[in-house]
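Quick start: read one record
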Amino acid sequence: SFRPHNNNKKRTGSDLQLLRLRSGGDVLDNETQPSNDADSIDANGDDNDSETKSRKMYNKQASNWVRTEPRCLSDFTGRPVVFGMLEDVLNAQHDGSDSKGKVVLDIGCGEGYCARKVIEMGASKVVGSDISKEMIACALSTANGDDRFKYYEAVAGELLKGLNDNRDFLGIDSAEGAFDVAIAVFLFNYLTTYEMEEVILQAFQALKPGGTFIFSVPHPSMIFCHDKGAIFRLDSENKGYYSSRNEKITGIISTIDGTTLNIMSVHKTLSDYITAIFSSGFEIVGIQEAGVTEEHMILHPEFFESVKDRPLHLVFKLKKPY
C-alpha cells in the first residue's frame, strides 16, 4: 500500500456465457427490465439539485431497476472488478479464528444488486443505505425476509447519522468501527468533490481498523469520450478536464438488449479522488482501470466494439490502517 506523507428472444450459448462472464449475477432465461443501480439518472428533469433529481427518478422507476443478472455495460465492465477486489477480503481471516464472515456496508445500495453478490461471496451481513425509499423497498422485497440483508433510507452525506439512528434495527452498537468492509459502487458520480470527501471520511470512521473500502467511478477521462455512436458517452464536447470540475454532465449508457439509459456524472479529476482518499486517512491498496476485455470482445463484439480499448471506470481499493 502507499500514501503521501500527509494526509422472448432465445439466447444463444454465447449470450448465456456472456451473462455469466466474470459473475455479475444469475442467468435467467426470461427477459427482465434493463437496469443498473447507482449509475443511471433521469437527465431530463427540471431539478438542478442532483440529490433531488436522483431521488425523484429512483422513487418513480425503482421497480424497473430490479435485476438478478448483468445487463448494463458496467455490469460487465465495472462491477466485476469490484467483486474481484472483494474476493480476498471476504475470504480473509484476521487471526485464524474469524469464521463468521464479514459485515459489509453498501453505500448507495440501490435495489441491492451488489449486496446480493457480496452475500453470495461469503459476507455474513450487508447493511445497505440509499437515498430512494422506493429502491430500499425493492431491496427489502428482494431480500424476502433474509436477516443477512439490512436496508434503510438515508442520504450518503449523513452516513454515520443514518447508521446510528437505525442501530437497533441494524444490529450495531455504534456506527463507528462497526464494519469490516464498505463499498460504494458508482455513487460518487452523483456527488460534488466536497460531498465525496465527506462520505469517504465517514466510511473511514464506520470501518474497523484494518477494514477495506472499495469504490468505483466513471474514469475521469470519460469527459473526452463523446463519440455519438458509443454505448457509453458523455455530452461533454468542448468541456475541459480541469475547468469542468464539479460540473454535472449528462450522457448515456446502454444495456446488452439495446436499451439506452440516461446517466449523469459530476466530473472530477484523478487528483480529486487521490486527495479525498488521503485526507480521510485511508491507504491505497490498489487502483484498477476497468474496461472491455478480450473475453468480452470474443463473446459479444457487436455490443462492446464502440468502447473497446478505452478506460471506462476507475476502481479503488483502500485500507484503514490498524
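The longest strand covers residues 207-218.
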